[in-house]
Design brief:
The structure holds 2 protein chains of 2 kinds. Chain A is about 60% helix and about 5% strand. By secondary structure, chain A is mainly α. By secondary structure, chain B is mainly beta. Chain B contains 3 helices and 14 strands. Helices cover about 5% and strands about 40% of the residues of chain B. The chains are: A mainly alpha, B mainly beta. Chains A and B meet through helix 1, helix 2, helix 3 and strand 1 of A and strand 10, strand 13 and strand 14 of B. Strand 1 of chain A pairs antiparallel with strand 13 of chain B, so a sheet runs across the interface.
């Protein structure tokens, strides 16, 4: 797995053609709410359980 | 026929019944634990057709279709069949005929009920239907199991399995030992540092990086050709056989304001490495 493959998968999931360019201010402005964090943790836990068949 | 109002319609039988045999194989202890089933072969002995009957056959109809199905009997004694092999046999050629029943044994394994026998339903049908179809298939007889059959001619189930202790992967690589040429297939740690990627800056909020792992090393090749293995199979290779997804939090701009969004990326992390034949068919999953 390479960084490029991670990027390609992200772009595919988000339906984007290229990575958006965000600046430091954007990064400081965005706040990860408890709801989003809970969603992230739930997916993380589920991903360890659900195994898909490799190629 | 008995209705006053509806005229009787008579039909002519075109297709004849197939002769069906169900073979039962006890499977306990047949497949050692930690082994991979490579192939399962059902061998049936086709008995010679009497010469006089052969002479009466037209040259166009000296074959019959033999179909092998896996017979699944559920707890509630309902059953269903799954086609696993089917081919034509010639009435002129008696002797052992081989059928590939690997899928049947894979299905049986998925039931995880080792005490239950493997049931194989063998049916002999006409080569084809239609006005010129013959009854030649009725002359095809295979030696069956059980009474009155000499041991030699009984149907045989041949299982080819590989000891994964010798031909499989070794799980995770030993972090302390560098993987050298010819080392055995294993799963090696590989960290993807997203923080170090320019495209991810300010965009990917979580995770900063993750362990993706990779499969490295070589697989031992089993000896010699197997009955059904054709040229399609390449050597056994160390591949990722189980993978998991990776959730990511990214920053998405909406109305000029950034907001966090969770995305799940499939097949990002290797959970298990295995030795697998390149080109081997992926066993069908058994439904409920």
């Amino acid at each position: 797995l390479t960084g490029e493959q991670v990027l390609a998968s992200l772009l595919q999931q988000l339906g984007l053609r290229e990575a958006p360019i965000l600046d430091q201010r954007d990064a400081e402005e965005v706040a990860t709410s408890a709801h989003v964090r809970a969603q992230y943790v739930a997916l993380l836990q589920r991903s360890h359980g659900a195994r898909s068949r490799g190629k | 026929r008995f209705s006053q109002r509806v005229r009787e319609v008579a039909g002519r039988l075109l297709a004849s019944e197939a002769s069906v045999h169900v073979l039962v194989f006890g499977m306990e202890g047949r497949l050692p634990p930690n082994s991979e089933l490579v192939q399962a072969v059902l061998r049936l002995f086709q008995q010679p057709v009497p010469k006089a009957a052969l002479r009466r056959l037209s040259p166009y109809s000296a074959r019959a279709r033999v179909t092998v199905q896996w017979l699944r009997v559920r707890e509630d004694s309902s059953n269903s069949t799954y086609l696993v092999d089917s081919r034509l046999v010639s009435l002129h050629e008696s002797g052992w005929k081989a059928f590939d029943v690997t899928e049947a044994v894979n299905f049986w394994r998925q039931l995880s009920r080792p005490g239950q026998p493997l049931l194989l339903q063998v049916s002999v049908q006409r080569e084809h239907l239609g006005p010129r179809a013959s009854d030649a298939h009725k002359l095809v007889h295979f030696a069956s199991q059980g009474r009155g059959v000499t041991g030699q001619a009984e149907p045989q189930l041949e299982l080819h399995s590989l000891d994964l202790g010798a031909y499989g992967s070794q799980g995770d690589c030993d972090p302390g030992v560098p993987v050298v040429e010819g080392a055995r297939c294993c799963r090696q740690e590989m960290y993807i540092d997203l923080r170090g990627m320019t495209w991810a800056q300010h965009w990917v909020l979580e995770p900063p990086g993750f362990l993706a792992y990779e499969c490295v090393g070589a697989c031992r090749q089993p000896p010699g050709p197997l009955p059904f293995v054709g040229p399609l199979l390449g050597p056994r290779q160390c591949v990722a056989s189980e993978m998991t997804s990776l959730p990511v939090i990214v920053s998405v701009k909406e109305g000029g304001r950034p907001r966090p969004q969770v995305v799940s990326l499939p097949n990002m992390r290797v959970e298990k490495c295995s030795c697998s034949w390149d080109g081997a068919p992926v066993p069908r999953k058994l439904g409920p």
